[in-house]
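ENTRY TYPE: paired fold submission
RECORD: A
CONTENT: sequence, then structure tokens
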Amino acid sequence: MTALLLNTTARLRRRADHHRRCDCDRDTLETPWKAEMCQILHARNRAEKRTLLDEFLYTHESEIARVLKRAQHISRLD
């Protein structure tokens, strides 16, 4: 029961983080990084976009590295 509650709470938090002006499909908000990417996309100015992007990269650095490593492995890149 607690896992379900935590899962629901996390889902609601992601929905709240999603920008209100965005017309993205609300059913896809549970996709990792979606709400954060939306916030960056809809930032008011370049400085805000840069700040949000830097924060995103810092927060998810290890996950991003893992995704890139996996993509290189799959595509057999050097």
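RECORD: B
CONTENT: sequence, then structure tokens
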Amino acid sequence: MPATAEAPSAESSEHAHDPAVEGLYEGMFVFDSADYATDGEEYVARVLELIEKAGGSVDADRMWVDGRLAYPIRNKRKGVHHIVLFRMPPGNVKDLDRACKLEDRILRHMVIRPPEEIYHATVEVVNPSEEGDDEVEIPE
């Protein structure tokens, strides 16, 4: 059998960003509002676990919107949208997609690959650095 190159481990992808091996992704995950209100941390932890199991590493995440859905999903009319920005080898996105479809807690999900500049700007918005002030100044 010919020798083959080993795939990079998850640990190596955390230390170096190589766009040929690792992609930058933005995921939006929708949960039922009522269930999220009682056990939101568990729901988010499960999504982050699915990303890590698929070989990804999370750069930022937070609840984005909680409100009425445009249309009912599984007879639910209100939902919480949770945004997650993560790095992952492009070939592993299919594994994450399949895992999310099998997870009952996730009503809907979508993963996109934004341009690198937009990804980094979104990470700053989702998890602002401690150096900057979170409050926006309003001119008088």
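NOTES ON RECORD B: Confidence is low (pLDDT under 50) at residues 1-16. The chain is about 35% helix and 30% strand.
STATUS: closed
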